[in-house]
Amino acid sequence: MGLNDISSSERIHIGFFGLRNAGKSSLVNAVTGQELALVSEIKGTTTDPVKKAMELLPLGPVVIIDTPGIDDEGTLGGLRAQKARQTLNYTDIAILTVDASKGLQNADRELITLFEDKKIPYLIAYNKTDLLEDSFPDASENTIYVSAKTKQNIHELKERTAHLVRREGSGKRIVADLINSHDTVVLVVPIDSAAPKGRLILPQQQTIRDILEAGAVAVVSRDTELPQTLSSLKENPKLVITDSQAFGEVSRNTPAEIPLTSFSILFARYKGSLATVVKGAAQLKRLQDGDTVLISEGCTHHRQCGDIGTVKLPAWIKDYTHKELRFAFTSGTEFPEDLSGYALIIHCGGCMLNEREMQYRLRHAQDCGVPITNYGIAIAQMHGILKRSLEPFPEILKILEGDA
User: Fold this and answer.
1) Which terminal CB of the chain, N or C, has fewer other CB atoms within 10 Å?
2) Beta strand 344-347 pairing with 292-296
């Protein structure tokens, strides 16, 4: 898989923050070697976060984010500044751009506090050193003096940014640690009106890749052909993985001795949220008339007839709870700050969100006291097969049995 094929969710997200006219956009262009950001002497030229997936040596595949100035003015400016702060939720490394001729301002110091509160590694890049008449101080552990105009210390900035990357999660696998070389894994992929034309969705692609890298065999089948697929195999597969919306049918057609789980469950484990969303599923049994359920997707796509998030899930939940419920929906980078009006959050598998963003949403829900689960866990719970779908993960199964 080439660097250009790596999902944005798997890339290091580097955010450039600072006041208007500190030279953030110029610095982004200098670091990337591209005219990625619009540059102007007019304050507030950057009106929304600008994101670009690219390869940046020596880091490798990254997403560069140029944010609006945090001191933007007026009602619209305040919304832009809020957008910049929200970007922190999915930022792995922060570069605070400061006008070297003016030094740190109060708004800069507030940002540094946010970086530290959110445990985001950061560098302070004092830009526009070419305008300084006097010599500038030596760089400290988290500061560097640069010039986007003359390219002074731009290479050093990239090198130091690379050293901030945390590599501890690089050994995580989606499914490879559950299987052995030469095992067969059956992946169930429904092809219906909501499926993308001509391609598999990202979780399916990534799971197939992980199976192949483990030296195992991936067999892909539609839900409608699953019985024939299983009967054609000489031996039972090591595991069956299904799309969540077909959970009920796939469970009925998969013999009890064959382990079964879903893409959504695997990705919850991969992003470190499986224990939390398993606990959150218990809230489905406690919903009352008048409660509001938030259904949140990490990606944006055209809604179609039979869409799982807006059509199928609400119908299943109403049928399961027999309650008069309200539903709210968000997608993409939208995730409410105020969660007080929700009794439960049901999130997608988060394949399009990086781990930091997914962890932020989980922590924010927990801090607000709102249970959160995901599509696969919720659907398994409502179909009475959650215990079975968690059997490949005995440590998580203990949590489920403890909440029973």
Assistant:
1) C
2) parallel
Which residues sit opposite 95 in a β-bridge?
A: 16, 123
Q: Structural domain tally of the chain?
A: 3
Residue 86 buriedness (CB in 10 A; 0-12 / 13-18 / 19+) = middle
Query: What confidence tens digit (pLDDT) does each residue in 211-255 have?
Result: 999 999 999 999 999 999 999 999 999 999 999 889 999 999 999
Cα(191)–Cα(226) distance, integer angstroms: 13
Beta bridge partners of residue 218, listed in sequence order: 185
pTM score, two decimals?
A: 0.71
E strand map for 100-142: 122-127
Distance in angstroms (rounded) separating the CA atoms of residues 211 and 183: 9
Same domain flag for 248 and 144: no
Instruction: Give CA 134 to chain center in angstroms.
Output: 45
Tokens of 325: 């419920």
Q: How far apart are CA 65 and CA 63, in angstroms?
A: 6
Last residue of a domain, one of 249, 266, 283: 266
Say which residue the tokens 């008069």 belong to: 324
